[in-house]
Write a structure and sequence with these properties.
The complex is a heterotrimer.
Chain A: H1 3-9, H2 14-52, H3 54-60
Chain B: H1 8-38, H2 54-81, H3 86-115, H4 124-145, H5 149-163, H6 166-176, H7 196-239
Chain C: H1 3-28, H2 30-33, H3 39-45, E1 53-59, E2 65-66, E3 72-78, E4 83-89, E5 101-108, E6 114-122, H4 130-139
Parallel strand pairs in C: 4-6
Antiparallel strand pairs in C: 1-3, 1-5, 2-3, 3-4, 5-6
Classes of the chains: A mainly alpha, B mainly alpha, C alpha+beta.
Chain lengths: 65, 240, 157
C-alpha cells in the first residue's frame, strides 16, 4: 500500500475506523465548545450584575457555611 | 478536611491552577496517542486495522465508568455531609459521563460490525452500558424536573447512588455470563494481553481522556458556581 | 449519633440492601442474561427442535465443509466437552476461523444439527501484531486456542 492512500484506507476498514474517530472528536469537541460558551455567558452575566451591586457580591463570596 | 475545599473561592483558585496543566497534558498525550494509535502501531493479527477503534472505544468506556463513580461519590458526600460544592461537582460530571458513554456505544457498534458481524446485540455487557447512558440521562432530567435546586439535588443524588449497582455489573458482565463482548484485556489478573506496541497508544489515549474529563469538570463546576451566584443575586435584586 | 453519622449509616445501609437485592435478581434471571448456550447446555437443557436459541463455542479444527457452488457451509462448535454440528447458508464474518469462537442463532433440527440463521464471530481478548503471532507459533509457545487455519479465506478484505 502506498503512503497516504494506504493510511486512509485502513486496510479496507476505513468506513468503520474513521467514523469512530469522527464520532469521538465530535462528541468531545462539541461538549467542550458548549461548556466553554455556557461558562463565558454565566461569568459575563455575573460580572454585569456585580458591577451594579458591588457590595452585595463581596458579602456573598465569603466563606461558605 | 472536606470543608477546606468547601469554600468556592478556594476551589476556584485551585481550579484555575489545575486547568492549564490538565489541558496541556491532555493535548500532548492525545496527540501522541492519536499518532501511535493511527499510524505508529501495528494492525492486529486477526482484526487488522479495526483494532485502532479500540484506542477511542476503550478509553471512552473506562471514563464513562470513572465519571459515574465520581458522580456517585460526590452525590454521597452531598447527601451525607451537605458539602456545598459536592452537588455541583456531581451535576457537572453527568453530561461528560453521558458523552463518554455515547462515544463508547457508537464506536463499539462501528467496531462490532466488521469484527463480530453485527452493530448491536442485547448481550449483558452492551445492555448494561446502554443502561448507564439512561442513568446519566435520567440524572440530568431529575435536575431539571424540580424548581427548587435543593430538592432536585437530593433526588438526583439518590438516583446516582442507586445506579452504582450497575458499575460492577458492567465490569464483570463479561465474566459472569456468556457475552458476545470479549473479556477484559488490560485490567485483569495476570496482566494485560495486549502487545506493548498496542498498549502504549491505548494508555496514552486513556490519559488524554482522563485529562479531558478533569479539565472539563473543573470548567463546568466554575460555570455552575457562577450560575448559582447569579441566581442568588437575581433573587436578592427581585426582593430588594 | 450525630445527624451526619446517621445519614452516612442510612446511605451505606441503603447501598448494601440494594446490592444484595440486585445480586438476587441477577442470580434468578441468569438464564435470560446469558447471550448464548454452550453445546453442553443445549444437550442438558433438552432444547426442543424449532425453539430459537443462540449457541456459542469454538469452531472445531478441520470441521468446516462447504457445499460446492452453494453458499451453504457446515461446521462443528465445541465447548471442549461436547460438540454440535451447525449448518448455515450465508456469508461468514471476517473473523470466522477454525479455532475461533462464534455465536450462531437459529433452531435445532430434528436430526440434532443446528440450523443457523445468523453467525457472529466472537473474538478473544488477545491483541498483537501479526509478526508476533507468527513468531509465537513458530516458537511453540502459542498459549491460546489455535486460529492458524484460515478456513474462511483471508480475514482482511
Amino acid at each position: 500500500m502506498d503512503g497516504i492512500v494506504g493510511f486512509l484506507s485502513m486496510g479496507g476498514y476505513w468506513p468503520f475506523v474513521w467514523p469512530a474517530y469522527g464520532a469521538a472528536a465530535l462528541g468531545l469537541g462539541g461538549l467542550l465548545a458548549l461548556s466553554i460558551r455556557w461558562l463565558r455567558a454565566n461569568e459575563a452575566a455575573l460580572a454585569r450584575l456585580e458591577r451594579e451591586r458591588p457590595r452585595r457580591s463581596v458579602a456573598r463570596s465569603g466563606p461558605a457555611p | 478536611m472536606l470543608h477546606r475545599f468547601a469554600n468556592p473561592a478556594r476551589f476556584l483558585r485551585i481550579a484555575r491552577w489545575v486547568v492549564p496543566w490538565s489541558a496541556s497534558l491532555g493535548l500532548v498525550s492525545g496527540a501522541a496517542g492519536l499518532y501511535l494509535g493511527l499510524a505508529g502501531s501495528p494492525a492486529d493479527y486477526q482484526q487488522g486495522d479495526t483494532v485502532r477503534i479500540m484506542y477511542v472505544h476503550v478509553p471512552a468506556a473506562w471514563m464513562a465508568l470513572a465519571a459515574y463513580a465520581t458522580m456517585a461519590l460526590a452525590s454521597a458526600v452531598a447527601l451525607i455531609w451537605k458539602h456545598p460544592l459536592a452537588d455541583l461537582i456531581a451535576k457537572s460530571t453527568a453530561p461528560i459521563g453521558a458523552t463518554f458513554t455515547a462515544i463508547a456505544l457508537i464506536t463499539g457498534a462501528l467496531w462490532g460490525q466488521p469484527t463480530w458481524g453485527t452493530w448491536w446485540v442485547w448481550d449483558a455487557r452492551l445492555t448494561s452500558v446502554l443502561i448507564l447512558l439512561f442513568l446519566y440521562v435520567g440524572y440530568l432530567a431529575l435536575w431539571n424536573a424540580f424548581d427548587d435546586p435543593t430538592r432536585a439535588a437530593r433526588a438526583a443524588a439518590v438516583l446516582a447512588l442507586v445506579g452504582v449497582v450497575n458499575l460492577p455489573i458492567i465490569k464483570f458482565s463479561v465474566d459472569w455470563w456468556n457475552t458476545l463482548h470479549q473479556p477484559a484485556s488490560v485490567l485483569k489478573i495476570g496482566g494485560p494481553t495486549i502487545h506493548p506496541a498496542m498498549l502504549t497508544p491505548l494508555l496514552l489515549m486513556a490519559l488524554a481522556f482522563l485529562c479531558y474529563f478533569i479539565t472539563l469538570l473543573l470548567l463546568r463546576v466554575r460555570g455552575e458556581l457562577a450560575a448559582r451566584k447569579l441566581r442568588a443575586l437575581q433573587a436578592a435584586r427581585a426582593e430588594g | 449519633m450525630t445527624r451526619k453519622r446517621r445519614r452516612l449509616f442510612v446511605v451505606l445501609l441503603g447501598m448494601a440492601t440494594l446490592g444484595i437485592a440486585a445480586a438476587l435478581v441477577l442470580f434468578a434471571f441468569e438464564d435470560n442474561l446469558v447471550f448464548f448456550y454452550s453445546p453442553s447446555d443445549v444437550a442438558e437443557r433438552e432444547i426442543k427442535p424449532g425453539q430459537r436459541i443462540r449457541v456459542g463455542g469454538l469452531v472445531e479444527a478441520a470441521s468446516l465443509q462447504r457445499t460446492p457452488a452453494s453458499p451453504e457451509v457446515s461446521f462443528a462448535v465445541t465447548d471442549m466437552r461436547r460438540s454440535l454440528k451447525i449448518v448455515y447458508t450465508g456469508i461468514l464474518p471476517d473473523l470466522f476461523r477454525e479455532g475461533q469462537g462464534i455465536v450462531a442463532e437459529g433452531t435445532l433440527r430434528p436430526d440434532g444439527a443446528f440450523e443457523a440463521r445468523s453467525v457472529l464471530a466472537k473474538h478473544d481478548e488477545n491483541y498483537m501484531p501479526p509478526e508476533v503471532a507468527d513468531s509465537l507459533k513458530r516458537a511453540g509457545v502459542w498459549q491460546h486456542r489455535e486460529p492458524q487455519q484460515d478456513a474462511s479465506g483471508k480475514a482482511r478484505p
